[in-house]
């Protein structure tokens, strides 16, 4: 869903006349609202964020909270609703999920301060932060297992190239790249940003609007954010450097997008500088291209129903840390295409497969290691708490543990050695200081105090003693007052309104209000059952306690800032260590998966091989295992045959439910797993790098985009036939089934010829059009395979074995019977089928193969070259006539001339 919020500020208030008087507070609200267009305003009033006008209506609808009224504006009621500050995160989370951006406006001074300026003065307020889906840092607003990307898309006027930059504030990642407009969809699908920013103009560009509107949140911004002329300067300012040359080489478009990202971050974080790594350029062509339809069809990170459960990622994710899970998802989104890089990852997995003790020890250590990167990000933007500091301390300590364990092993592969180098980077002194400074029990917020360990800072200890000693004084005072007044039940209590006060039950109240006790006890409040007093002595001690308490808190906050500054100084090294943890987590997790599910190391090289022995489907296998069912392993071989230069196409026929789709998908997933650096579910796999993966499987309507099932199928097929090259792997399942039989068969027929002659890629093609198997007689790289079933007393038994050959029938009626169609329908269907088959006998497609020349030949005879027909000539002659300029005689002659051109009967 795309939401471009058009929350408009209410009309600015008219000058105050008697009936349109605007209160000073409302005046302030309207000014702040007008300064923050397009944002829903959370306006802090005491313990609530209040929301007014149209914002209130939107919030009430979106959050299901009660809409009330508060006062009047220009004679009309002001709609209002409120969110308690303590629950604000929960509500923010829901608004963000709907793509609504929120400006949080806080009270910038104590109400008492405002009062000093006059009784009518309004508390100073300001927007301290804009909360948007792509700029979150709070743990409770983020999905721990997924990256949270903000992406900027820039395009030069009239150009075809697009500059992209994306950042994850919570991990400091900052990446830029460029692509052609046509590749934008695939790139967006790969990165899967949580928020995209574009110019207003791009947002309404007809070429891109469809694509952009399908994203979860798109924020159109004014042109200045994407201004190319100032891009470099804005980047230099952000990174506090004189020139970007030293940071990274970027194209102008990339720099424009990168600058848009930092400007947007600055605008949303208001006054806080978010630390980001300098932008790195994503190397073009180093990852397998997978278009959005293929990602969706293969259910890589979500099932077609939108769930994580049941997806490939869910099946292979054995990571034990959130950062590891995020890295695995990133790798799955962008499999590598260089054999050396892939081998490096396989080496690491292999080392952990071979040494189960090492694997288990590391996993146990990683399990308790905290998510340092997100704690780091919070600390760096000034939103961190004491628990984030502890997270850093524990992270560095965990790094030592992991290093200890790894140091005991010899000859570790390069990927693990690199991770170890990352773990060594953070300063150990920092961890030691933190260990001395931080208490065992920690409050969530730094402003609650009490997180610095006793003994760390002598001045703090002294101040705390003073505060605590004064508290003891209060206790002894209570005993003395009880004695002096003779009221045993006298208590000294504290609340925020009265501060410290003496409380007695109503029956003793009078005594304290009379001489001589009234000289000491000053009456403050009478409640139903109690009477409350203060004394000057109590006032003094209260001031002392408050002072000492305030000073202790002030000292603690100073210490907090000192520690946070140490983190900031060491942030690059801490990020490196955090990434190293994630790398180790992914490598050990993939090793565990390989061992538990019996995966092997694939042999990946630059060839065009694709030979899988004993291949299985990673997700279906796990599902069947849970039901106690075995998965039948199957081989495939799309490698070029002897004397051939290009890979093969397998045409798979077989009954419904036999396992064709499963077989197709498993081969695609094996290639993908191999290239992310994982072992694969097979007994042996030899794979020549796949640079592009295409799949067209299943059929689904896309009514939201106004496309029928058949249209979706054809659009996706068109992409494949237009783009697949020799290094691609193509999976096509039942092309043409969404239309009339002969249309479908013809399309499938022509598509196979095109794949074979033009694309020359490795491909798997499943179909129920058995006529297509004839094509193997003409196409040397087309190989027929079938999924075996057995017929048993009229029923069908699925064996799920893929073998050379072709199926003679689809057993559709037997499958329908299994599905529970009424017996009468089954009997009737059998009769109809028998009749149809008898009629069709001898007239099938067998003749076609001889009658029709191959695709390659037909394509060489373009339509324009045929001689004009008589109808064409006639049309030309009619077009040449100009009736308005003709005399009746000329018109009659022309009519005779036309008649003469008609073919003689
Ligand atoms: N190799 C296998 N081993 C065990 N069970 C399998 C295997 N392949 C498929 N199955 C089971 O058979 C079911 C049907 O498989 P699949 O959807 O791949 O069939 P299909 O031939 O594509 O059917 P249709 O032509 O009706 O679309 C799967 O859900 C799975 O449970």
The CATH architecture designation of the largest domain is: 3-Layer(aba) Sandwich
Considering the protein shown, what is the CATH homologous superfamily of the largest domain? P-loop containing nucleotide triphosphate hydrolases
Q: What ligands are attached or bound here?
A: adenosine-5'-triphosphate
The spatial strand order of the largest sheet comes to: 13-23-24-25-21-26-27
Low-confidence stretches: 1-19, 855-865
The Rg value, from CA coordinates, equals 37 Å
CATH top level class name of the largest domain: Alpha Beta
- The global form is globular
DSSP, total strands:
27
Distance between the termini: 64 Å
Helix/strand/pairing category? alpha/beta
Number of helices: 32
Total separate domains: 6
Largest beta-sheet characterization:
7 strands, mixed
Average pLDDT, to the nearest integer? 84
What portion of the residues fall into strands of 2 or more residues?
15-25%
Would you tell me which CATH topology of the largest domain applies?
Answer: Rossmann fold
Query: What's the helical proportion of residues?
Result: 40-55%
């Amino acid at each position: 869903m795309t939401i471009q919020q058009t929350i408009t500020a209410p009309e600015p208030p008219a000058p105050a006349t008697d009936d349109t008087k605007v209160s000073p507070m409302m005046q302030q609200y309207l000014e702040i609202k007008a300064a923050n267009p397009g944002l829903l305003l959370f306006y802090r009033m005491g313990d609530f964020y209040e929301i007014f006008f149209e914002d209130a209506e939107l919030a009430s609808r979106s959050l299901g909270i009660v809409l009330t009224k508060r006062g009047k504006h220009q004679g009309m009621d002001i709609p209002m609703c409120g969110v308690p500050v303590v629950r604000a995160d929960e509500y923010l989370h829901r608004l963000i999920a709907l793509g609504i951006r929120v400006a949080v406006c806080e009270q910038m001074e104590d109400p008492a301060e405002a009062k000093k300026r006059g009784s009518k003065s309004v508390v100073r307020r300001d927007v301290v932060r804009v909360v948007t889906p792509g700029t979150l840092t709070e743990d409770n607003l983020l999905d721990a297992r997924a990256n949270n990307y903000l992406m900027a898309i820039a395009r030069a006027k009239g150009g075809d190239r697009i500059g992209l930059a994306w950042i994850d504030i919570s991990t400091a990642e900052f990446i830029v790249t460029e692509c052609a407009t046509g590749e934008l969809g695939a790139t967006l699908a790969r990165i899967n940003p949580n928020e995209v920013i574009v110019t207003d103009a791009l947002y309404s560009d007809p070429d891109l609007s469809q694509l952009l509107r399908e994203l979860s949140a798109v924020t159109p911004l004014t042109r200045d954010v994407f201004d190319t002329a100032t891009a470099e300067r804005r980047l230099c300012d952000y990174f506090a450097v004189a020139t970007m040359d030293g940071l990274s080489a970027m194209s102008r478009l990339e720099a424009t997008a990168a600058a848009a990202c930092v400007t947007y971050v600055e605008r949303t974080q208001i006054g806080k500088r978010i630390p980001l790594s300098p932008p790195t350029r994503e190397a073009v062509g180093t990852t397998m291209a997978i278009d959005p339809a293929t990602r969706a069809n293969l259910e890589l990170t979500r099932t077609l129903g939108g769930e994580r459960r049941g997806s490939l990622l869910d099946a292979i994710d054995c990571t034990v840390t959130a950062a590891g899970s995020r890295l695995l998802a990133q790798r799955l989104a962008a499999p590598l295409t260089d054999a050396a890089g892939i081998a490096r990852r396989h080496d690491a997995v292999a080392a952990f497969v071979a040494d189960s003790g090492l694997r288990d020890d590391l996993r146990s250590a990683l399990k308790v290691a905290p998510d340092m990167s997100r704690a780091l990000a919070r600390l760096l933007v000034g939103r961190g708490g004491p628990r984030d500091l502890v997270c850093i301390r524990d992270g560095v300590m965990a790094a030592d543990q992991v290093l200890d364990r790894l140091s005991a092993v010899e000859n570790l592969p390069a990927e693990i050695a690199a991770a170890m180098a990352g773990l060594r980077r953070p300063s150990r002194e920092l961890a030691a200081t933190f260990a001395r400074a931080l208490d065992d029990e920690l409050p969530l917020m730094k402003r609650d105090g009490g997180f610095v360990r006793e003994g760390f800072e002598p001045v703090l200890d002294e101040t705390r003693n003073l505060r605590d000693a004064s508290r003891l004084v209060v206790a002894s005072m209570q005993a003395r007052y009880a004695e002096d007044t003779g009221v045993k039940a006298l208590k000294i209590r504290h609340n925020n309104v009265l501060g410290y006060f003496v409380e007695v039950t109503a029956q003793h109240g009078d005594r304290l209000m009379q001489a001589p006790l009234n000289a000491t006890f000053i009456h403050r409040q009478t409640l139903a059952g109690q009477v409350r007093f203060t004394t000057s002595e109590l006032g003094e001690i209260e001031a002392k306690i408050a002072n000492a308490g305030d000073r202790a808190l002030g000292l603690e906050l100073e210490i907090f800032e000192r520690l946070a500054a140490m983190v900031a100084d060491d942030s690059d090294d801490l990020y490196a260590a955090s990434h190293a943890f994630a790398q180790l987590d992914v490598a050990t997790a993939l090793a565990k998966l390989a061992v538990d599910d019996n995966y092997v190391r694939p042999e990946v090289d630059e060839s065009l091989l694709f030979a899988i022995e004993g291949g299985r489907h990673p997700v279906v296998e796990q599902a069947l295992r849970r039901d106690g069912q075995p998965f039948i392993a199957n081989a495939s071989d799309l490698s070029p045959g002897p004397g051939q230069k290009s890979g093969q196409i397998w045409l798979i026929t077989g009954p419904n439910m036999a396992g064709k789709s499963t077989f197709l998908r498993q081969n695609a997933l094996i290639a993908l797993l191999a290239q992310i650096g994982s072992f694969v579910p097979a007994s042996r796999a030899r794979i020549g790098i796949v640079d592009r993966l295409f799949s067209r499987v299943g059929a689904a309507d896309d009514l939201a985009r106004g496309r029928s099932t058949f249209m979706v199928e054809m659009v996706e097929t068109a992409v494949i036939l237009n783009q697949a090259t020799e290094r691609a792997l193509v999976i096509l399942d039942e092309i043409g089934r969404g239309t009339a039989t002969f249309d479908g068969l013809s399309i499938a027929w022509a598509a196979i010829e095109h794949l074979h002659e033009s694309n020359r890629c490795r491909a798997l093609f499943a179909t129920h059009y058995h006529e297509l198997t004839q094509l193997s007689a003409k196409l040397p790289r087309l190989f027929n395979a079938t999924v075996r079933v057995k017929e048993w007393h009229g029923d069908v038994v699925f064996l799920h074995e893929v073998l050379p050959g072709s199926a003679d029938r689809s057993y559709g009626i037997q499958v329908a019977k299994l599905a529970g169609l009424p017996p009468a329908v089954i009997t009737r269907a059998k009769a109809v089928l028998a009749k149809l088959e008898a009629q069709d006998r001898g007239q099938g497609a067998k003749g076609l193969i001889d009658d029709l020349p191959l695709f390659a030949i037909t394509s060489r005879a373009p339509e324009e070259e045929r001689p004009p027909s008589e109808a064409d000539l006639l049309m030309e002659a009619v077009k040449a006539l100009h009736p308005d300029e003709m005399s009746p005689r000329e018109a009659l002659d022309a009519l005779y001339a036309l008649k003469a051109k008609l073919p003689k009967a």
